[in-house]
Amino acid sequence: LGVLHSRIGDDLLSSDYLMADETTIKVLDRDKPGATHLGYYWAYLDPLRLASLFEYEKGRGGCYVRSHLDGFQGYVQTDAYAAYDSMPQVNPGVKMMGCWAHVRRKFVDALSTEQEQSEWFITQIQRLYAIERFCRLMELTPQERLAIRENAIPILEDIKARMLKLATTLTPKNVLHIAIRYTLNQWNELLVYTTDGRLEIDNNLVENSIRPIALGRKNYLFAGDHEAAQRAAIIYTLLASCKARQINPLAYL
How many angstroms separate the CA atoms of 199 and 234, rounded? Predict the structure, then answer.
């Protein structure tokens, strides 16, 4: 299975659009008797060719993603986690993308203290998603999808204008201010999806691919060692790729 995992990894690097995310896994460590090490599964998804790759690493630093995507050229869509920030500097062929689902969550968090303003932003984001929903229902081609997304431009302009106006009136610790800063800090990345009809508005597809890991953690609690955690990543890679392509994983294996 390790050979297949390696080939899937090589194939993903030949893509020009990847979604990325990461999640935790507790690992028994001989150097920490009576305790577990908190490791990470790094997940990568090619949403166009429906291929998934999982890699286990002991940490969550930017050095890992730079190693995984060494030589990659294209779009990388993430939740704005800082580990990915250095990618364009290290590799000029990488163009970072933002995720509107994560932006929406920030404004949902602000509902409890700034309900009226937060609801306005959430409504505008829902309008962006309505455009995407229409494109899916109509099964539009990437070129047609790009044309329809012209309708998102005035909505995006209104969102930015409202954020800039409100940002000067809120304290830095205000939850709505935090949501606004989160959005403005990656504004250019959040607009990238409007430039190419193949791209998605969020990275929910890769988040969905790591949900089985959350279920697994409740069942097996931890990996026996770091090598076992990587073996699990290999199996997760094959199962997630089968699921994305609607292949029976048991029959495939």
Answer: 27
User: Which residue, 32, 179, 199, 174, is CA-closest to 106?
Assistant: 179
Confidence band (pLDDT; 50, 70, 90) for 68?
A: very high
The H-or-E segment that residue 28 falls in is strand 17-28
pTM: predicted TM-score of the whole model, two decimal places = 0.91
Report which DSSP code applies to 20: E
Residue whose C-alpha is closest to residue 200's, from 243, 149, 151: 149
Of 136, 162, 131, the C-alpha closest to 148 is 131
Cα–Cα distances in Å, from 63 out to 57, 60, 66, 83, 232?
Answer: 10, 8, 5, 8, 22
Average pLDDT for 159-168: 96
Cα dihedral 99/103/104/108 (nearest 10): 150
Instruction: Tell me which amino acid residue 224 is.
Output: G
Contacts 24+ apart (CB under 8 A), 184-188: 184/160, 185/80, 186/80, 186/98, 187/98, 187/160
Q: DSSP assignment, residue 200? A: -
Examine the pLDDT at 32 and tell me if it is beyond 80. Answer: no
